[in-house]
Write a structure and sequence with these properties.
Layout: E1 6-10, H1 24-27, H2 29-56, H3 61-80, E2 102-106, H4 116-124, H5 126-136, E3 138-146, E4 152-157, H6 159-175, H7 180-200, H8 229-237
Antiparallel strand pairs: 1-2, 3-4
Amino acid sequence: MDTYPVRLEGRLDPGLSRWQWLVKWLLAIPHYVILAFLWLAFAVLTVVAGFAIVFTGRYPRSIFAFNVGVMRWSWRVGYYTCSALGTDRYPPFTLAAADYPASLDVAYPQRLSRGLALVKWWLLAIPHYLVIVVFTSGPGRWTTGSDGSGEQISQIGGGLIGILVLIAAVVLAFTGRYPQSLFDLVIGLNRWCYRVLAYAALMTDDYPPFRLDTGGSEPTGPPPAPFSLTERGRLATQPDPNRS
């Protein structure tokens, strides 16, 4: 299993509050306000980085560090609130890495393809965008008018991540525990989203795998290689040291 340049991890805190998840979105409003401006800067700087890549083949380090910080900040806030609900610890107000149950980092690329910078964010990533839509937003419609009966239409879909986190919140409220298998799945879905985000933001040329790596920790290293037929035959002919 190949290691992807984006590392997203989360550590499920024990003893989560049964009901604090009801107000976390309210407590996180200061973060949302700041992140709105940070993501605006992220978008502008990504365009600047795109031009730099096309002309030099390199992603400016200062812009890269800032954009990784914005992603890191967003993941911590999402982990605290509606993207995972994995901790009751309030997220820190910092772009830097911090002692927090949720972490994110992206390996800095020494060189990037000049040609890919022109197409990967809008063309090559389209298959992943279709998957991300399922993960983050469900089918729905938003209208301000009314239907034939004069009633206002308001139908919203929450996306797979939102649905799973809501299920986890309900289970937490009634049992006092967050199901580990559900947590692992939620982290895997978020990991997929952030890998695609880093690719679309021109931070790596490695195409995101169509693979759901679940669990709080990133998979590391390739799996053990299977025995070849010659190796199996050689092992089969070796004497058993436990036999007398």
